[in-house]
Amino acid sequence: MKILILNSGSSSIKFQLIDMPSEEVIGKGLIEKIGLKDASITVKNAKGKKSSLQLNIPNHAKGIEFLLSILTDVNMEIISSLDELSAVGHRIVHGGQAFAKSVLINEDVMHGIESCIELAPLHNPANIKGVQAMELAIPGISQVAVFDTAFHHSIPEHRAIYALPIDLYKKYGLRKYGFHGTSHQYVSLRAKEIYGDDKTSKIITCHLGNGGSLSAIQDGKSIETSMGFSPTDGLMMGTRCGSIDPGAIPFIAEHEHLDMAGISELINKKSGLQGISGISSDYRDVSSAADKGNNDAKLALEMFHYDVKKYIGTYMASLGGVDTIIFTGGIGENSAQARREILKGLEGLGIVVDDEKNDKVMGIEADISPDNNGVRVCVIPTNEEVMIARDTFDIVS
User: Regarding predicted confidence, which is higher, 283 or 12?
Assistant: First the structure.
């Protein structure tokens, strides 16, 4: 069964075509700058053959039209006709309280996704456009919604609700939702496949990229995560501030003369590594500046490393210990420095990194702890597309 996986952004569409249940990727690519003059589409087949085109792509519907035409282009050797497509799986960022698992999309589900727009105003509208564009292109094809928030629905209520008047929770669903759920779920399941049950009862997953979050996973279920009502909460990130004193918000608004839009811009786009370093939101750029002696860049890295370390300690308490710590995401998979600095000082808790192993690992599955160490530390590249394909395959089947 060939399943098309779509991750629709406001001006982009990432896609993979996956043959299930073998999980073989037979085509993948990216549509960029939708609505702009220099829009483009790039597609690669399983043999590595690549096609890149600059096109007039005014909207998502046109982007999907071009995508399907390239997937069926005889020269690309991906599929011969659209009849080979069995279903489409969509990454939907926010499912609110309504969606605790992936679902087959129908009219009621679309209304439910639309009702979550105010919870994810930058993401859900773009996700919806992807669904609508596919329905236009292939009317009646089975489409499945896979929610970033669904995996975290297992977090107990006493950990998810904020200490605000309970009416705000009851009226608006104001609570911790968590994000990156598909990634946290994938790497925890993969760890179970690799290491078995004896080392995967209590897992801490560290999804570290330009956005980042940690999750405490007990017996396969998320019981705590660092992102909250919005993706701004939790870790210091590329441009997001993470958790700060709520009292700082009205203080900044008053003294900097910012309205709510200005505050949102500040905490989501001007803070984090970017705000502290003054250099970049990219961990690699900040590391390079720190190596050259930039003190603000050094401070930014120290803050980031400490933030992750703090959550690891907190989640060890939540879990009552830890069997395995997993690093994933762009930074987690590729930065030996980040992994080493984050875990430095945790040796007394049984968490040790083998520097020789760690320095060799970039973007591959690997154990980076000493042999027979009490706590396993490993790197597992995330694969959210496969997780979406699995859910789509199960539901459509």
Answer: 283
Which residues contribute to the annotated binding site?
A: 7, 14, 91, 207-211, 282-284, 330-334, 384
Sorted by sequence, the CB contacts under 8 Å of residue 133 that are 6+ apart come out as 8, 59, 60, 61, 63, 64, 65
Q: pTM for the complete prediction? A: 0.93
pLDDT 10s digits, 145-184: 999 999 999 999 999 999 999 999 999 999 999 999 999 9
* Catalytic residue check, 148: yes
Question: Where do the domains of the chain lie?
Answer: 2-147, 196-379
Q: Tell me the C-alpha distance between 330 and 212, whole Å.
A: 10
What CATH fold (topology level) applies to the domain 2-147? Nucleotidyltransferase; domain 5 (3.30.420)
Name the catalytic one among 38, 83, 148, 355. Answer: 148
The secondary structure of 222-253 as a DSSP string is: EEEES--SSTTSSS--SS---S--TTHHHHHH
In CATH, the number for domain 196-379 is: 3.30.420.40
3-state secondary structure at position 236: coil
pLDDT in tens, 59-89: 999 999 999 999 999 999 999 999 999 999 9
Helix axes 60-71, 124-137, angle to 10 degrees: 50
As annotated, the binding site for substrate includes 91
Backbone dihedral angles phi then psi of residue 15, each to the nearest 5 degrees: -150, 150
Position 129, amino acid: K
What pLDDT, on a 0 to 100 scale, did the predictor assign at position 10? 80
Peptide bond into 21 cis (omega under 30): yes
Task: Extract the annotated binding site for Mg(2+).
Answer: 7, 384
How far apart are alpha carbons 214 and 272 in whole angstroms? 16
d(CA 209, CA 137): 33
